[in-house]
Each structure stands twice: as C-alpha cells, then as structure tokens.
From TrEMBL, chain A:
SUPFAM superfamilies: Chaperone J-domain, HSP40/DnaJ peptide-binding domain. One of its GO terms (molecular function) is unfolded protein binding. Residues 4-68 form the J domain. It comes from Paracoccus sphaerophysae. The lineage of its organism: Bacteria, Pseudomonadati, Pseudomonadota, Alphaproteobacteria, Rhodobacterales. Gene3D superfamilies: DnaJ domain (1.10.287.110), Urease metallochaperone UreE, N-terminal domain (2.60.260.20). Pfam families: DnaJ (PF00226), DnaJ_C (PF01556). Coiled coil: none annotated. This is Molecular chaperone DnaJ. InterPro entries: DnaJ_C, DnaJ_domain, DnaJ_domain_CS, HSP40/DnaJ_pept-bd, J_dom_sf. GO terms for biological process: protein refolding. PROSITE patterns: DNAJ_1 (PS00636), DNAJ_2 (PS50076). GO terms for cellular component: cytoplasm.
Length: 319, 124
C-alpha cells in the first residue's frame, strides 16, 4: 500500500469519517477487481481498501496521525477474489451454461470425462442442487494460483526451481526452455483437494522473468553486450562470448565500432513455431583503464595524418 | 459412490474460521445470506463448512452491499451475472488455450469461419 493512506483514498488528512467512507466506496465501485479487468484499477482498489481498513477505526487513525504506527502492515493476508473461483470450471454457483444449438458441442468440449482429464464438470449433480443449498459433491479441487519469479537464464535455458507452497509442500518445478514473462505453468493435481470423487485442482504458476543486467529479450531474439578492448576493436580478435548454449568463440571483425551487432543464428529463444530466434552480440569498445603517454602520443601522431569525422553524415543543427 | 463423506470438508473452514477471515461479517448477516441462497455452505456432520469459494463470494457480496447498497434480490442478480460472465470467461480462456495448441492452419481456418459468423458485411 502507498505510504500515505489519505492519498490512496484521495482525501485530505482532515477528512471526516463520512468522507473517508464515501471516497472508499467510490473507488470500490469503479475499481473492484471482481468488477473490472483493469490491472491498474486492481492496484488502486487494493491500496484504497488497505487505507480504509487503517483509517476507518478512529483510534488507529489517531495513532497513525501521531506517527505511532505506519501505513505498512495493514494489508490483510493476500485476498483471493471471487473471480479466481468463479472462472474455474465447476463453480457451484454457476447455473448450467446454455449455448443453445451448440450445447452438444459445448458438452463435447467441456463436458465430463474425455480430454478434460476427468474433471468434475458441468451437469454433474451441481445444478440439481438449485437454490436449496448444496447437496452431494464431486467437485474438482480449486486451482491455486501463484506467481513465480525466475531469472532470465533459467527462463531462457530451461531448468528446475524449487518452490514451497503456502501449505508447506515443496515442489520441484520444471521451467521449460524459452519461457516468457507472463506465461503460466500448470502443475496438474497440485492445487486444492477435490471433493468427493473430484480430482485435485492444479497449481498455476504465473511466471515473471526477472530483468538481467546482461541479457535482454527482443521477441524470440536475445541481445547481450560484449565489451572489447581498443586493440581488439582495431585489429579484430577472437573473443569468448556467453550464449544460451554455453560459451562460443566469436570473431570480432577488425575495425568494429561500439554498437555493432554480431548475429549468432539460431541461438535465441524457442519461438511459438518451434524455431529458435537469434542471439545478437552488441560490441562495446572499452578504453583501457588509463590512457598512458605512449598511447596518447601515438594517437596524436596518428590523428595528424588520419583524422576522421564520425559525425560527418549527421544533419547539422537540430540535435 | 460420492455423497457426504469426509471429502467435502477437507480444505474448508468452520463458521468461526470464516468470521475470522471476514471481520465485517456478522452472524446475523451470514444467516440471512445463507437463507437467501447467496452462499451455500457444505453441510457436514460437524455443521456448515465453508470453502474458499464461499468465503470469496461472501466477501464480494459484502463489498457489493457496501459500495452499491445492493441487497437481497439485486445482490443475487448481480452475483448471478458475475457467475455467468466469469464462467463464460473461463470457458473462453480454456477454448483459447486449446486453440493456442493447434497448428496455425487450424487457427487461420477458424478465423475465416468466425469472421463469417460475427462480421456482417454490408453491400451497397
């Protein structure tokens, strides 16, 4: 939550209790995660509800105003919104979906058994319960959602990572090579327990790929920067560069400038079509730590005969 | 085979645990919401048990009451619409997920069919 709960609600510090409530309700109406898909709205709602939780109690508010407590630590345990449950198949509160003429197509694709892997699906006794309360259940367990942050190279190369679930269970998760930020990994049967004869739900891991100082992704391509010395830039060299498949010897052409990109074909990430993108190595000429007299003297002599203007083809003025 | 075994109560909470999770929920309001069929706890030998979905639904119901002053019938209607929408959303997501596994040609073919069904071309 924001450090300033008043700001999160958009009210002044002198707001009355009624004004606080009004501000909170206004945000809840517009930004409740069950009512909108907008991620920014979800954040606003989260901040506003934490702020309101803190400020609605006059004693707590007074303590906060006196600086005795801060706005942190007010967040409730991560709340799971109804949407998480009501989107899942087998929501007991959802009536039977009726797609008219296509009902049999729907049942074919989503119905019980078959390809769905034995999930307790629609029409398996749930709807008979009606409003009178639930009766007997074979319900597939809930899917549990987690967010998993992996480093760039693990995501790109693939690997395993160990996670501890809130219930204390430890899982080894295989990260497939070429996993992108925002992808979801489904671990079948690792979610909530099923009810009755229902199968367990899945664990859904939403993957966040951490930024890496050395590696960048551009579509299916990866880009790294390779520092080279002045002499390597002038004379050319063979230099070792790290790729997703391990180090390779790279030929730096003589006279390479900073920013020049060398392409390693097929060394990028695996794309949707199964083919791998490319790896671009961007050269960066690094000057020696100290420019000594010898070098300076040599360059002075060199400049006298060979001066060149690297900005010659730039437009004048403007920039 | 199925029926009321010990199964339904695993991973669910008692009334007291539920009220700890949702501080704003009074005993009286909970009883009303159950009576209205807005939340349907699992019946078990040890009394009503509430699943996570019930807790999330109750919390949403309280939020809707609070923010929009929705009560009883209106609340039930809104929740029913949310169930329908989210259910359809989940179906759609599953369908898209399944399609994503299909080769590009299948998708191209479906794209053509969907256009024919959804896009009306007006000829002059």
């Amino acid at each position: 939550m924001a450090d300033d709960p008043y700001a999160a609600l958009g009210v002044s510090r002198t707001a009355t209790e009624a004004e606080l409530k009004k501000a909170y309700r206004k945000i809840a109406k517009a930004d409740h995660p069950d009512l909108t898909d907008d991620k920014a709205a979800h954040d606003r709602f989260k901040a506003a509800s934490a702020a309101y939780d803190l400020l609605k109690d006059p004693d707590q508010r007074a303590r906060f105003d006196r600086g005795e407590i801060d706005a942190q630590g007010q967040e409730r345990a991560q709340r799971r919104y109804y949407r998480d449950f009501s989107e899942a198949q087998g929501n007991p509160y959802r009536g039977e979906a009726n797609y008219g003429d296509f009902s049999d197509v729907f049942a074919d694709l989503f119905g019980d058994g078959g390809a769905a892997g034995g999930r307790g699906g629609f029409g398996q006794g749930w709807q008979s319960g009606g409003r009178g309360g639930a009766r007997s259940f074979d319900m597939r367990g809930q899917d549990h959602r987690y967010t998993l942050e992996v480093d760039f190279l693990t995501a790109a190369r693939g690997g395993t990572t160990r996670i501890t679930l809130p219930d204390g269970n430890v899982l080894d998760v295989t990260i497939p090579a070429g996993t992108r930020d925002g992808q979801t990994i489904r671990l079948r049967g690792k979610g909530g327990a099923g009810m009755g004869n229902g199968a367990a739900g899945d664990a859904l891991l939403s993957v966040t790929v951490a930024d890496d100082p050395d590696w960048r992704r551009d579509g299916d391509d990866v880009v790294t920067t390779l520092p080279i010395s002045l002499d390597e830039a002038v004379l050319g060299a063979k230099v070792e560069a790290d790729t997703l498949d391990g180090p390779v010897m790279l030929t730096v052409p003589a006279g390479a400038s900073s920013g020049r990109k060398l392409r390693l074909r097929g060394r990028g990430l695996k794309g949707a079509d199964g083919r791998r993108g490319d790896h671009y190595v961007e050269l960066r000429v690094a000057m020696p730590p100290v420019v000594d007299d010898e070098l300076a003297e040599f360059i002075r002599g060199w400049r006298a005969k060979n001066a060149y203007d690297p900005r010659a083809d730039r437009e004048r003025g403007g920039r | 085979m199925s029926g009321l075994t010990s199964g339904p109560t695993t991973g669910s909470m008692t009334r007291a645990e539920l009220q700890r999770q949702i501080p704003g929920l009074t005993e009286a309001r909970l009883a009303e919401l159950i009576a209205a069929g807005i939340v349907r706890p699992v019946h078990s030998n040890s009394g009503d048990r509430f699943r996570e979905i019930d807790a999330a639904r109750l919390q949403l119901a309280l939020d809707l009451e609070d923010a929009f002053e929705l009560h009883d019938e209106a609340l039930e209607l809104v929740l029913s619409l949310i169930d329908q929408l989210n259910g359809a959303r989940g179906d759609m997501r599953a369908m898209l997920g399944a399609l994503a596994e299909e080769p590009p040609e299948t998708r191209a073919r479906l794209r053509g069919l969907i256009r024919e069904l959804r896009v009306v071309t007006v000829r002059r």
